[in-house]
Amino acid sequence: MKTASLIAAALLLAACGQKEHAAPTSAAPPPAGDGPSVATTTEPDTTATAEATAGAAVKLSPTKGNTANGALKITAAGTGVKISGMVQGLPPDSEFGFHFHEKGDCSAPDATSAGAHFNPGSQNHGNPQAQPHHAGDMLNVKSDAQGVAEVSIDNHDVSLQTGQPNDILGKAIVIHAKPDDYATQPSGNSGDRIACGVVAIQTN
Q: Which of 11, 121, 154, 187 has its CA 20 to 30 A from that of 140?
């Protein structure tokens, strides 16, 4: 009897063990990467990009007795800058000298307060597509039949916000009454200054 009781107890324990192994278990958490993806990245820091692409603006105002005015944008482009925008109030179908000047001062009625052409390299005046020329020498702008000039000019001789001698921040842009002949010293015989504006950091 004692032996029979021991056998019965052993069989009972074995049956209980099988039930425990057969019992369903809760699903184990999926390994990392198998579950639904959850966005954990933060917004990229655009501060450095904004600073790198920060531009400057120029509000051109007419000098005494003239009507030329406009707005220009200047952005760093490679080793130089790109000047773009629109000038209106010009005599129609004409060309006009267009230069960076050494002083950011347009206060004089004729804008002579802006000084001479911007010339950090102490070069002779000339065609910006040849040598020598001032860093501030640029191609003439041309007006259409309505007296509007679309400006899109690259200048590889100046820089923006670099702190270098050729940095044009705080300098002036001047539009002259006549086209630059790219030869006459020191300013291309481009005549009176009909509009002037200072290169300033863009705030919007």
A: 121
Active site residues: 99, 101, 117, 125, 134, 137, 176, 193
Report the alpha-carbon distance of residue 53 to residue 38 in Å, rounded.
32
Q: Identify the domain containing residue 63 by its residue range.
A: 57-201
Residue among 169, 162, 170, 172 nearest 52 (CA): 162
Report if residue 43 sits inside a domain. no
Residue 9 lies in a domain: no
pTM: 0.73
Q: Is 189 left (phi over 0), alpha (psi -120 to 50) or beta?
A: left
